[in-house]
């Protein structure tokens, strides 16, 4: 991309973030984008807290919730590429306790595609208990699926933490925090992405707030439904490894992760071209409703949210968004990857859509 075009995109995105803060649509936010492997957008605005005591910088850290599922999926697919685990392998062959109550036929592919039927949020007794890996795995392994594995696509929400990453731990003998560091963070040179923030980085973490457009918090919130920001503002959760929802990072590392999955990454790419293609193939489960149109079709591939199919039903877009607005992904035709963070949770992705639209239009010129 020509320098003048990159400068123009940077200026426009920076102005969009500043306007969102000024209008009260954001407290603090970041946006980053890579095109052809080069960082062309690195914008930030606002504050890490409501008191405006800490300004946002490009190394500030934000909770991105389920956006982290995409990064966990990349680490897992690297294990698949090395033959440590098979996509059509039975989960029960790796995790025997899981093969009960109708889950006996569940495969690894079902989990990546959100077709396991383990889609109801797992109960917990206290916030610190969420960080008790063994206890939460025990609870997930014991549940009865909502539907027969493989028959329907339904988002596995928080359960993805334990469904996917316990398998990775069992086939490697390593904790997932070490797996994702070795498979993604270290080869990508990403120093600002965490599943468990170290003490030294905690002062850079933004506090999360609930936006006015979000549903009100009931007097007694149901499990998980309305209190994710309270959970993520808790130090024990910020420092745990819960890849289904507690990734804390900056926009640059989010965008860089996806840029290293595109063809323009060359020898630095994190997954082979064939694996990325397989991860982006769009299918329907037997009981999934057909999309209203091809243009509106979105589903899950192998861990990533996928949309905008080409003539072979391979997604042009892949990535993963998170609760309240953060997002990261790649648009393959434009060789573009992006990351977006913020700490005011909202019900829509308007800022994300506007920022990505500006970058995509520039890529098409």
Automatic annotation (TrEMBL):
Gene3D superfamilies: DD-peptidase/beta-lactamase superfamily (3.40.710.10). Residues 14-325 form the Beta-lactamase-related domain. This is CubicO group peptidase (Beta-lactamase class C family). PANTHER family: BETA-LACTAMASE-RELATED (PTHR43319), BETA-LACTAMASE-RELATED DOMAIN-CONTAINING PROTEIN (PTHR43319:SF3). It comes from the Bacteria.
């Amino acid at each position: 991309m020509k320098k003048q075009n990159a400068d123009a995109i940077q200026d426009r995105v920076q102005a969009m973030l500043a306007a969102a803060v000024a209008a009260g649509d954001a407290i603090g936010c970041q946006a980053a984008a890579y095109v052809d492997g080069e960082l062309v957008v690195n914008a930030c605005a606002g504050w890490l807290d409501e008191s405006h005591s800490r300004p946002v910088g490009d190394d500030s850290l934000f909770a991105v919730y389920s956006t982290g599922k995409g990064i966990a999926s990349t680490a897992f697919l690297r294990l698949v590429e090395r033959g440590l685990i098979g996509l059509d392998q039975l989960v029960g062959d790796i995790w025997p306790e899981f093969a009960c109550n109708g889950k006996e036929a569940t495969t690894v592919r079902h989990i990546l595609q959100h077709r396991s039927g383990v889609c109801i949020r797992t109960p917990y007794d206290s916030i610190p208990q969420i960080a008790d890996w063994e206890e939460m795995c025990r609870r997930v392994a014991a549940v009865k699926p909502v539907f027969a594995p493989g028959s329907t696509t339904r988002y596995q929400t928080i359960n993805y933490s334990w469904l996917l990453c316990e398998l990775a731990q069992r086939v490697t003998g390593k904790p997932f925090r070490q797996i994702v560091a070795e498979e993604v963070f270290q080869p990508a040179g990403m120093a600002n992405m965490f599943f468990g923030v170290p003490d030294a980085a905690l002062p850079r973490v933004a506090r999360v707030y609930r936006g006015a457009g979000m549903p009100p918090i009931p007097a007694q919130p149901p499990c998980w439904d309305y209190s994710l920001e309270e959970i993520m503002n808790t130090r024990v959760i910020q420092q745990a490894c819960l890849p289904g929802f507690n990734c804390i990072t900056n926009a640059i590392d989010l965008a860089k992760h996806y840029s290293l999955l595109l063809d323009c990454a060359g020898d630095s790419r994190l997954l082979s071209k064939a694996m990325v293609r397989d991860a982006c193939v769009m299918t329907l489960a037997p009981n999934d409703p057909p999309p209203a149109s091809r243009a509106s079709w979105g589903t899950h591939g192998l861990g990533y949210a996928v949309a905008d199919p080409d003539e072979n039903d391979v997604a042009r877009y892949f990535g993963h968004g998170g609760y309240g607005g953060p997002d990261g992904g790649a648009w393959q035709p434009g060789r573009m990857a992006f990351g977006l963070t913020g700490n005011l949770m909202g019900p829509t992705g308007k800022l994300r859509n506007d920022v990505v639209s500006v970058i995509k239009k520039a890529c098409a010129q």
